[in-house]
Design goal:
alpha+beta; binds cytidine-5'-monophosphate; four-stranded antiparallel sheet
Length: 312
């Protein structure tokens, strides 16, 4: 990468174990109540400082923008601005992204990349920022970004920026199935809003999770729900098909992630998850991943050169 110093950091995908969409706010957004969890389907970032000024991003996958449309570039610019460093003077920033998380899929890949960039630059530039400081720098980039600073699991409220620690105890495997078409987030929210006259209050079980700040996987699988399910599953046949096939393959529960279009199933053990991956992977056009739920926060490690992305 031509950098003097480089760190490597993995940026995991997220799933929503619970996603309740509450009232519409005056700013047009909706208040949320969500339990979010990272899983070990990860993009890989190599972030380096360079003697050449500017922010440069390269990505192994064609079609991923590498200019200011990419949240990584905006995150790096936001860090340099807050740190009082000019983009037009060294140190420059060079980032190599190995993309594995499907894009626009309800998995938060771009937001995770942005949070990883902030963590990496905090370390490389020796800024010593607290998590709260990193949240305040990254929140304007997108509603999902602050969550990744609280990974592996957290409770997310309001527009997404009110994040509190939540531990999900125990372990599970997750099979993610992306049907190969995107669902536009704004459209999904509009459908949800238009199709209801009132907002169902939070259940006592969800309030208990909020109060305790901790929940076991056994308990959370019993109360998992996503408000987008009722809107999107009837209008997209593939989503219902995936849910049924995941349940038939032994999932404890199967649900949309975010506003889709990825559907995930939760499995007690690796063997059943791998079996489900093989079964659902037979359908052409579906991208299927079997991964454990993450148990650690995002963190960077020194050095290394980017490894080539695996084929497939
Ligand atoms: O956060 P993002 O830019 O992906 O949101 C896209 C659209 O989804 C917003 O413009 C808004 O219409 C809707 N949205 C919402 N409430 C949220 C998040 C998104 O209504 N909390």
């Amino acid at each position: 990468m031509g950098s003097d110093r480089t760190v490597r950091i993995n940026a995991p995908a997220k799933i929503n174990l619970v996603l309740r969409v509450l009232d519409r706010r005056p700013d047009g957004y909706h208040n949320l109540w969500s339990v979010m969890q990272t899983v070990r389907l990860e993009d890989e970032l190599y972030v380096g400082l360079s003697a050449r000024a500017g922010i440069r991003l390269q990505c192994d996958e064609a079609g991923v923008p590498t200019d200011g449309r990419n949240l990584i570039v905006r995150a790096a610019a936001a860090v340099l601005a807050r740190a009082g460093r000019s983009e037009s003077r060294p140190p420059g920033v060079e980032i190599h992204l190995i993309k594995r998380i499907p894009v626009s899929a309800g998995l938060g890949g771009g937001s995770s990349d942005a949070a990883a960039t902030v963590i990496a630059l905090n370390a490389l530039l020796g800024l010593g920022w607290s998590r709260d400081m990193m949240v305040s720098v990254s929140a304007p980039l997108g509603s999902d970004v602050p969550f990744f600073l609280f990974a592996p699991s957290a409770l997310v409220r309001d527009r997404g920026e009110a994040v509190t620690s939540l531990s999900v105890t125990g372990a599970r495997w997750v099979v993610l199935v992306n049907p190969g078409f995107p669902i536009e987030t704004r459209w999904a929210y509009e459908q949800l809003s238009a199709g209801r006259t009132s907002v169902r209050p939070l259940s006592d079980a969800l309030r208990r999770i909020e109060r305790d700040g901790s929940v076991a996987w056994e308990q959370v699988v019993a109360v998992m729900e996503n408000d987008f399910d009722a809107v999107l599953v009837p209008t997209h046949d593939a989503l219902g098909q995936i849910k049924r096939q995941l349940m038939a393959a032994g999932a404890e529960v199967a649900l949309l992630s975010g506003s889709g279009a990825t559907v995930f199933g939760v499995f007690r053990d690796e063997a059943t998850a791998l079996h489900a991956q093989a079964a659902l992977g037979k359908t052409e056009g579906w991208r299927v991943f079997a991964v454990p739920a993450s148990s650690v926060p995002l963190s960077c490690e020194a050095g290394g050169a980017p490894r080539p992305a695996p084929v497939g």
